[in-house]
Design goal:
The C terminus is likely disordered. The chain is α/β, with parallel strands linked by helices. Helix 6 runs parallel beside helix 7. It has a 6-stranded antiparallel β-sheet, covered by helices on one side. Strands 19-18-17-16-20-21 form a 6-stranded parallel β-sheet, sandwiched between helices. The protein has a 5-stranded mixed β-sheet with strand order 2-1-8-4-6. It starts with a strand and ends in a 6-residue tail after the last strand. It folds into 3 domains: about 100 residues, Roll (Ubiquitin-like (UB roll)); about 100 residues, Elongation Factor Tu (Ef-tu), domain 3 (Beta Barrel), CATH 2.40.30.10; about 130 residues, Rossmann fold. About 40% of the residues are buried. It has 7 helices and 22 strands. Strand 10 and strand 11 form a beta hairpin.
Length: about 350
Amino acid sequence: MSHTIQLEGHGIEFSCEPAKSVLDGALAAGYEIPYSCRSGICGSCRGRVVSGKVEGGLGGGLTAEEEKSGHVLLCQAHPCSDVSVEVREVRKIDKNAIKIIKAKVYKMTRAAPDVTILQLRFPAGTRVKFKAGQYLSVKLEDGSFRHYSMANPPHQNDSVELHIRHVPGGAFSQKVEQGLAVGDQLEVSIPYGDFFLRGSDEENEGNKPIVLLASGTGFAPIKSIIEDKIKAKHERSMVLYWGARRPEDLYKMDLARKWESQLPWFRFVPVLSDAQPSDDWAGRTGYVHQAVMVDIPSLGSYEVYACGAPAMINAARHEFVHSCGLNPDAFYCDAFVSTKTSASQTIQAPTVAA
């Protein structure tokens, strides 16, 4: 039996079966609410249960305070009754905007010991509209999909650039390393995701300064965002903190340095977590999100866009909000997740005194 899900304050409702998460029900109905990892880790899809019951959705990217106030992770929460939830944003999905394309491999570059930059070209005359920061899906031979952020800006829309980190046993990264060749074709569907600058598709772009936070290949969508803003002659203040273990893992550091030297509105701070004496590293060390906290102890007037490892994103979101005064709704993220976790607790909307 399906239950009715209402998105509080948006005049939207849809049906959702108990076997589906609230997020999956929304997507199936043609509505996109904020989400990223879909594994209950990053916290992007948090929403507050106003009425009704859901099962699952606790832990992971939620704080104890959020759980107490009725927040759940909608990618893991399944309806047990009709439910009304508050969400940060909702957009109608334009299903006609999703294109399935046979893209051809035209260049492969080993950018770091465990990173390959893969460049795919679309068939002649094919161009795809997407927002800087979004991702595509690659279809594998077994019918499964792998998701990768596009590193090229939207005006370069006859091809895509993907930054592939090699994961031991990874189905696609292993193929890239051992079996993929220039000239091969891949089926991709594009675009997906809500990791993009807010205000960038409106006439009057927001004026809050921006912290861009990346770990590893989380640099890919950040690159797309910055190059899009360069094309638009943007002047909104941005600072990029890019974290990695060793210097060679900052595989596009020369490009980031070039941006910093040429753009008055852009600053770059590389941070290494495992620098060795042989690296001769004179820059910042430690956890990348903590470097942000040292430099900008008050984040109340900022927007943060974080991309990379879930552990980094969780730590950044929690500490930025609770220690630096960041508005929770001003933290946007894209978590690169390879494993799936779940929760099974039952949550009921809290009683609110009249």
